[in-house]
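Objective 1.3, modelling of assemblies. Example input:
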Amino acid sequence: MKTTNEEKMQEILKQRGIAMHEVENFDKKDVPPPHDSFTKIMDIYWDVKISIDMEDPYWYNRVWWENDGDVLIVRRAKAMAAALSHGTPTILPHEKLVMQKTKNFRGAFPYPWVTASFFNKVAENLMAQVDAPAECEADMVSQVGAGGGNVCQNYGNVISIAKKFGCRKEDIPILVKISKNWDGISVEELSYKYAKMMPDYDLFQKVMDSVICMLDSYTIPQGREIINYYLPLEYGFDGLIKICDEKIAETMGEAGTDGVYGMDHGFYYVAMKEICKGMSKWCENYANRAAYLATIETDPKQKAEYLEIVKVMNNIAHKRPANFREALQLTLCCHFGVVNEDPMSGMSIGRIGQVLQPYFEKDMREGVTTEDEVLELLELYRIKITALEIFASAGVTGGVLSGNTFNNLSIGGLNKDGSSAVTPLEYLIVEAGMRAKTPEPTLSVLYDEKLQEDFVMKCALCTKLGFGYPAWMSNQCGMNFMLRNYSDEGMDLVEARAWCLGGCLESSPGSFQPLHYDGKVTWIPGGAGPTASTGVHFIALPKVLELTLTNGYDHRMKRQILPAHNKKLKTYEDVLEQFKTYMRAIGIAVNKANNIQMDIWRKYNMPVVHSLLKANCFEVGLDIGKGGSLYTATINYETTGQVNLVNSLASLKKNVFDDKKYSLEEMTDAMIHNFGYKTAWETQVFSLDTKVATAETDKYAKIYADCVNAPKYGNDDDYADSIYVDFQDYFPKMVHELTSFYGKPLYLCQISVSTHGPQGMITIASPDGRLAGLTFADATVSAAAGTDKEGVYALMNSATKWDHSINQNSQLNLKLSPNAVKGYQGTKNLLELIRSYMRRGGFHVQFNVVDSDTLRKAQKEPTQYRDLMVRVAGFTQYWCEIGKSIQDEVIYRTEYENC
Amino acid sequence: MEQRKHVECKNYIHIDVDKGMCALTKQFVPMDGEGSLACPKFVPMPSCGNCKNFKNPDNYGIGTCHGLAKVDWAYSTCGAQGCEGYHEGK
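Predicted structure (tokens):
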């Protein structure tokens, strides 16, 4: 019997052209296919190898050294402009949106000026045809998926680098020659030179060697932030060059009252002029290439496409965009320009559906375009973003990123005036995500109670398809974090509404800026802070607990890693206090070392393309490194393995200190002997899907059972949950005591990305019953697989016992059986689940809608499942390009049969 | 005279480290081995290697560029479509 609410829903959907029965029986097969152009280009994508080449590094290096002695920001800008404007432009048939990072489809390139030692060591070995050693411990424990576009082994004239990238043999001598120029003076090496002057450098080095900390900041110094497209949209490149000329005349030689940075303004605008000229020429190169292709093309339709590209690229090379297609293309130009200037991950697109809505609206009103044409462009846009690669070590690309580059597209949220920010264009963005199945851009709904019902229903339908997007974030929680963290820098409630996700889940500040287009002003949101990362990168909390119990000795590495504390830990509080002592010392050492890295980076390798775009830099005439952006308190402290830590502390408290069943020494002994089972390093299975007994299993059977059965987080059981609540009280305060290179306090970021794989691999068995080498529980508030026995609402109760807006984020991954979300009722239940969680204070939830059997089959026969995508932790990725340790963890995640 | 390859042709569209696509036929063409030699419709792609300002390449293809304001090293397979100093001459 229909209720009033159902009748209302039917009416809303009817207005959107969606019949009720379509919703009730909605299934994957009901999603219209993507456009032909998308399919044809993806047919190429499936066969593409991830490739590096040396054109950009060559030009950067050449022009950098040709300008030796010049003011650094100008020198950097000239080098960057040269790299952008000299690369070979590639246009594929059927493309309508053009531009790529490099000449190759899934192309990337190394940055020897950031990291030279790796290339100087590895590249010479490659030249001598010797297998390259792993660059560090993190690389040895990081797994890159062996399928898809990854080049895992040498073949023919192609050399595999970092287990993922193919490089032509003839490019190796170029790489070696360029890298030698940077020997000893890359950001990496200069940073380490000065970090060695820290009294706790030895501790820092050991923490890095043991992978307690996953990576250095210089490896990906930008990203996990939101880009800003406003200035080129508002002024065009010629307009910006004109402003630069005016500003140079105004500021050159004038310090004003600023005796520290006053003189830098003039140089900044000189640099920005170089960047604008370089970006403009880059666009013209594409226009010229399209013009040539048009001359040789015999198919009239394709010829017309090439000529349209000529027109678009020639226009945006100089002027403000005149329509939606030009505006979208210009944003791509800016995005590629920024992601080319550093090894970078997580340069999020932001709320582009709101940024480009004015262009869409005008074109639709004037009959310049149709929804179908816009949908096609959005589908093709997805390929462009998915093809973005980052060249970094295996530890970074595999161990942290699982090959993803996290260009997150946020939808929803609120406007400047507090109304729902959902636009008609955003419905098409979701539709494109449903039809054009690619991992990127991932979609993130900034869920607010004000969002239109049919919009959130559409988003829920998309989530149900099982591609892993959209993920859902609480807009109010995000805004509250913004106000907590940035009010000291002047952020108010209105500006807080401009926030969205950087990277996969790094809440980042934004700002509303006035776009003058179509005879009106639209306040569009864009990024307003630098990287919301690059402080401390992923401390493996269970590993630090392990070392607390083993007096700082790492039994896996057979080395003393942390200073021996030599304390008898007689009570639970003693254990906790020593854990905190170790964490404090690690945080101080790693933070200082990363501050040095980021300071060297901003002095010698300052962002230039990005400093043109980021809100406020152009207005004040200062680059991002010098604090030109609106907000600078963005640097975070990342952790992994939280839930294993909490469960381990609960087990210690229960088994050792409350029930007194075992001594701490007996517990530690059992951990060191892996409770009598084979380790994951031996079995090569990284979840509890497989346990292989040994002769010692019986000896530890009882203690193992007691550890497994100890109270676990995620069951609405205060015994375990209170430990997590306590952690969420003391740990953010500890993090806040650290200050960044901007002189601002750090804050806690609680996402795992893929670090729970390699950092689980370096951790022996833990008191929660986790065996040695097993991947940690993913995310922050996801239960350890198989331990949440009281259903999903109990998990959500556990997860919301503290205020999520204290920290940058919390992360909850749920795996639902497809049956759990079947039909119209399934969609409603899914939405109700999300709403319930957010109303209780939860910040984030994302879903896999896939059954574990399918994943097991796909693991055995990856080529049969080439386009299978899963949600890992904040991102969607092709299954075959994910490393096994993460695959095992995703398979083993608790699967909910209903919601 | 050395036989030219698809990868050296202006009609070549780069795909990845072992193949490209011919803009005329829309077919994949390999960079190496069988099928990699250019067809009669070959048009040289602007590159350092076929620029008259590029001199004395060594066995790695690294030579000297005299085409821009400052003389510097360059390498023969570097694309020159965007280079202001490029003059086809080889």
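Chain A touches chain B through 51 residues (CB under 8 Å).
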